[in-house]
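Project standup — Tuesday

K.O.: blocked on the structure for the chain from last sprint. Re-posting the sequence here as requested.
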Amino acid sequence: MIYVVIGVVLIFLIGIMMYNSIVRKKNQIKNAFAGIDVQLKKRYDLIPNLVATVKEYMQHEKELLTRITELRTKASSPNLSNNEKIQLDQQTNSAMKEFNVAVENYPDLKANTNFVNLQRTLFEVEEQLSAARRFYNSAVTDYNNSIMTFPSNVIASIGGFKSEEVFSISSEERQNVSVKDLF
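H.V.: unblocked you, prediction finished:
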């Protein structure tokens, strides 16, 4: 008789532990999906702002380069007075300081650095999103295994736990983000 009571209590305790394990795994899925949401929000907030910043800076550099080129063209004109040459020289010096060139004929365009930073940030965001998706899929697989294997499947059935789908994307979504389309 005592063995029957101990057996029933033991089975009850094991059932509770299995149920709690399934609940923890279900919550891990929610946490993992929230991680994907965070990365998607980061992507949607960060990338357009980065692109807008790069576009704005590119426009700024383009205007400066155009202005410097125009000033240099005017300065090479043979019919300039000394005052005009001085004014052009001052304007050119001012533009060159603003442009921050390393070598006059081959300016180090800061937009290049911005593009590199944009590429690096795009890569980092996509890597973090990929990691979040892998974590989610791992949590889903662990949960699905626990509700489909014996004896925890009995507890899962009683508790009404249903299997979850792993994260997958369509072939269209598997294509790289076209930054060109953003410009």
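K.O.: great, moving the ticket to review. The CA atoms of residues 122 and 178 lie 11 Å apart. Confidence is low (pLDDT under 50) at residues 101-107.
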